[in-house]
Amino acid sequence: MYKDKVKFYKSLKYRSPMSHHFSIDRAHQLDELIRHAISQSSLVARQNVQYRIEQEQVFLTGIVNSYYEKQLAQESIGRIQGVRQVHNRLNVEPVQNQVETVEIP
Which residues form the BON domain (predicted)? Predict the structure, then answer.
């Protein structure tokens, strides 16, 4: 009986060797969801943020203005169903406060 259970579980494990790989449709759907999440965040959407997807993992790269924007990007992507892990490789480069001088006549 024990051998039958082991054989059964092993058959489940190897039943679908493609289960760990994305189908083209699923990858496209995930891409659309990520693009939508980035565009919905007004702070992140204005930044230079790129991403790539590899087997349910998302790699974020680019430049944002603050650590808050970096975290916001990661959290908005991490909430998407189907994203297993987010690798946040965004660089933070704060915008210098530029003060314009105005001459008063």
Answer: 26-94
Q: Residue 1: what residue type? A: M
Rounded to whole angstroms, how far apart are CA atoms 38 and 88? Answer: 14
3-state secondary structure the chain: CHHHHHHHHHHHHCCCHHHHCCCHHHHHHHHHHHHHHHHHCHHHHCCEEEEEEECCEEEEEEEECCHHHHHHHHHHHHCCCCCCEEEEEEEECCCCCCCCCCCCC
Contact 89, 61 (CB under 8 A): yes
Beta bridge partners of 39: none
Predicted structure pTM score: 0.65
Check whether 11 has a pLDDT greater than 80. Answer: no
